[in-house]
Write a structure and sequence with these properties.
The complex is a heterodimer of chains A (213) and B (248). Chain A has 213 residues and is an all-alpha fold. Chain A has a single domain (2-210), classed as MetI-like fold. Helices cover 80% and strands 0% of the residues of chain A. Chain A has nine helices and no strands. In chain A, α3 (45-59) crosses α5 and α4 crosses α5 (83-108). Chain A is flat, with a radius of gyration of 20 Å. The mean pLDDT of chain A is 91. Chain B has a domain at 92-160. Chain B has helices at 40-47, 71-82, 100-110, 116-129, 145-157, 175-190, 202-208, 226-231, 236-246; strands at residues 2-11, 14-24, 29-33, 55-60, 63-66, 85-88, 163-167, 194-198, 211-216, 219-224. In chain B, α3 (100-110) packs across α4 and α3 (100-110) runs parallel beside α5. Chain B is globular. The chains are: A mainly alpha (213), B alpha/beta (248). Chain A binds chain B through residues 111, 113-114, 116-124, 127, 131-132, 135-136, 139, 212-213, and chain B through 48-50, 79, 82-83, 85-87, 89, 91, 93-97, 106-107, 110-111, 139-141, 152, 155-156, 158-159.
Chain lengths: 213, 248
């Protein structure tokens, strides 16, 4: 316990990176996911095909494999990324696939009459999507997106394998230094749990607030 | 105002509208009645391009949707028609995430790119016109069906349409709420709006419309003045229909 308290600043720094990676990946994941969802629903055949293949490949392969491909695999093609950059890229691409499914489901759940009403007033398909459908879909998408976000918080532990010193690797480094396992691993488990619980709580609040109408 | 020539609409192998031709002058109020599945709603939805047409042409105020033209050319005409046409739906289709006044303002902001203050004053006026000045800030879920439908009418009027399409506007309403919607529609008719109304309200059709189109199986079976149609239906099909809807 003393060892944990003594090294708490180091662990907190790891937690900071875990949060940073989660938030950055989620941010880009949301953008990628929305684009992919719209491509799948409204794109021409080629775009739909690309979007479907992307979702299928990402969801059908382990995140760990995706991470090592981005970090190590690309080196073969002369692309050398820093560990943190590789983590951002791999996880954004990964999360984008899950986000797109959440958005797609939400967009499909909006009644067709909403689009028709918007079109009937003279809006283009694009305006109807942006002003009428997506704002409603985001509300429906928040519960699944919240789960994706909390899932991502835990998935970030995978980037420890490419030497990003987030929470998981911070603990591994301490374990290697002190030759004791349990205190450090138990401590980070508690920290992951606190962060997950906090975000779950926060998302429930947001969900409640958005369901005013 | 409206000129329809040889309009055909198929869903797959199924013929919904079979070679419909008619013209509707400005300021005319037309009620479209007939049994369900006769193609009334589809007919209405073709006019503002919510349904693509299989054959023929539809001309609204000089803009022509031609089934033989390219998709792109048709789309352009459809947008032009929609800017002159308002539509009211059976299920209201108000935007649930926007208040009553925001629902009415939306197209003014997005389509006409009007500044907010101007759009707001137009929207507030229209809500007053439909008797809902007090409900400006209410969300659709806080309004009764009749109130929602009146907001929907205000929303359609915001774009200053020359033509209003009503697709069974009172069919989803509780009986005691039908009157308030019909009253607003009647006022519109008296103001000289060109209107096409798909409806099951026979009394309203008879009193408010200038002309009745009776449709069955994808064709216009009768096209007559209300008094003539309701008193002396010419075809067996219309006679049977009127008997069924006026029974009890």
């Amino acid at each position: 316990m003393d060892l944990v308290i003594e090294n708490l600043p180091f662990l907190l720094k790891g937690a900071y990176y875990t949060l940073l990676i989660t938030v950055v990946s989620m941010f880009f994941g949301l953008i990628i996911g929305l684009i992919i969802a719209i491509a799948r629903l409204k794109g021409n055949r080629i775009l739909r095909g690309i979007a479907r293949a992307y979702v299928s490949i990402i969801r059908g392969t382990p995140a760990l494999v995706q991470i090592v491909i981005v970090y190590y695999g690309l080196v073969d093609y002369g692309i050398e990324l820093g560990p943190l950059t590789a983590a951002y890229i791999a996880l954004s691409i990964n999360i984008g696939a899950y986000v797109s499914e959440a958005f797609r489901g939400a967009i499909q759940s909006i009644p067709k009459g909403q689009t028709e009403a918007a079109l009937a007033t003279g809006m283009t398909e694009r305006q109807a999507m942006r002003r009428i459908i997506i704002p409603q879909a985001i509300r429906y998408a928040i519960p699944p997106l919240g789960n994706t976000f909390v899932g991502m918080l835990k998935e970030t532990s995978l980037v420890s394998v490419i030497a990003v010193t987030e929470l998981m690797r911070s603990a591994q480094l301490l374990v290697a230094q002190y030759y004791v396992y349990m205190p450090f691993y138990a401590a980070i488990a508690a920290m992951y749990w606190i962060m997950s619980t906090f975000f779950t709580f926060l998302l429930n609040k947001i969900e409640k607030r958005l369901s005013v109408y | 105002m409206i000129e329809i020539k040889n309009l055909q609409k198929n869903f797959g192998q199924h013929e919904i509208l079979k070679n419909i031709s008619l013209s509707i002058p400005a300021h005319q109020v037309v009620a479209v009645i007939g049994p369900s599945g006769s193609g009334k709603s589809t007919f209405l939805r073709c006019i503002n391009g919510l349904e693509t047409i299989t054959g023929g042409t539809i001309t609204v105020d000089g803009h022509v949707i031609d089934a033989n033209a390219s998709k792109k050319a048709q789309q352009k005409e459809i947008y032009a028609i929609r800017r002159k046409t308002g539509m009211v739906f059976q299920q209201f289709n108000l935007y649930p995430h926007k208040t009553a006044v925001q629902n009415v303002m939306e197209a003014l902001l997005v389509v006409k790119k009007m500044p907010k203050e101007k759009a707001y004053s137009i929207a507030a006026n229209l809500l007053e016109k439909v008797g809902l000045a007090a409900k400006e800030d209410a969300y659709p879920s806080q309004l009764s069906g009749g109130q929602q439908q009146r907001v929907a009418i205000a929303r359609a009027l915001a774009m200053e349409p020359k033509l209003m399409l009503f697709d069974e506007p009172t069919s989803a309403l509780d009986p005691e709420l039908v009157g308030e919607v019909l009253k607003v529609m009647k006022e519109l008719a008296e103001d000289g709006m060109t209107m096409i109304i798909v409806t099951h309200e026979m009394k309203f059709a008879r009193s408010a419309a200038d002309r009745i189109l009776f449709m069955a199986d994808g064709v216009i079976v009768e096209d007559a003045k209300p008094a003539a149609f309701f008193e002396h239906p010419q075809t067996a099909r219309a006679q049977k229909f009127l008997q069924q809807v006026t029974e009890f």
